[in-house]
């Protein structure tokens, strides 16, 4: 399998396309630029089978409906944010974008617990990593050695917690108890910025000193 990082939307949020040899793919956080993103997927002859959302902030959901409709694939979200997709106040677009607010239809699949999910040939451990938002989850692929962490953990930084539902101490607990427990060579595919590894962040992330 291989994966591609594609910044999309008003905040250039990282979408990720994880693809197998049959060109079936799982899409993480399609944040915007729907027509261009769909064209790229079609040009590459990629067939998405699911959209996995790390959380429902507006910059991660802007192209959800367009991709879902283009490829008839289900959308997954944690139950704590199941009503955020359709609510501009909760997903933050009402606050930051005003009349240009972003919404999407309800998710097709609701994540209620940590578990392993199998989507075709793809397998992920769902890790509940709240703090940046109440329903933040990370998707860990042991076979690929990568965790799609959304806005929980970044290279040399962590997610902001000053938005509604944010909790700094809870985020640190999530990072410590879930993400830093992964093998140190695990690639961290973050919602913004470059990728990193668990080991690099354990050694040098200034927000994690003391862990």
TrEMBL record:
InterPro entries in the cross-refs: MBL_Glyoxalase_II, Metallo-B-lactamas, RibonucZ/Hydroxyglut_hydro
Positions of the Metallo-beta-lactamase domain: 12-192
GO MF annotation terms: hydrolase activity; metal ion binding
Alphabetized UniProt keyword annotations: Hydrolase, Metal-binding, Zinc
Organism the protein comes from: Alkalihalophilus pseudofirmus (Bacillus pseudofirmus)
Superkingdom of origin: Bacteria
Lineage, highest ranks first: Bacteria, Bacillati, Bacillota, Bacilli, Bacillales
Name recorded for this polypeptide: MBL fold metallo-hydrolase
Cofactor needs: Zn(2+)
Family annotation (SUPFAM superfamilies): Metallo-hydrolase/oxidoreductase
């Amino acid at each position: 399998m291989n994966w591609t990082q594609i910044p999309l939307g008003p905040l250039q949020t990282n979408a990720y396309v994880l693809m197998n040899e049959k060109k079936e793919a799982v899409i993480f956080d399609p944040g915007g630029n729907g027509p261009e993103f769909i064209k790229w997927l079609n040009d590459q002859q990629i067939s998405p089978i699911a959209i996995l959302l790390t959380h429902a902030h507006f910059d991660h959901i802007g192209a959800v409906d367009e991709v879902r409709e283009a490829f008839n694939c289900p959308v997954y979200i944690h139950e704590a944010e199941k009503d955020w997709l359709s609510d501009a106040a909760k997903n933050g677009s009402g606050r930051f974008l005003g009349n240009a607010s972003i919404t999407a239809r309800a998710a097709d699949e609701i994540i209620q617990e940590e578990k392993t999910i199998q989507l075709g040939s793809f397998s992920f451990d769902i890790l509940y990593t709240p703090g940046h938002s109440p329903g933040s989850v990370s998707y860990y692929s042991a076979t690929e050695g990568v965790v799609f962490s959304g806005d929980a953990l970044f290279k040399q930084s962590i997610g902001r917690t000053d938005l509604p539902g944010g909790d700094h101490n809870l985020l640190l607990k999530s990072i410590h108890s879930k993400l830093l427990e992964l093998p140190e060579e695990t690639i961290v595919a973050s919602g913004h910025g470059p990728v990193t590894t668990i080991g690099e962040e354990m050694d040098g992330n200034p927000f994690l000193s003391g862990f």
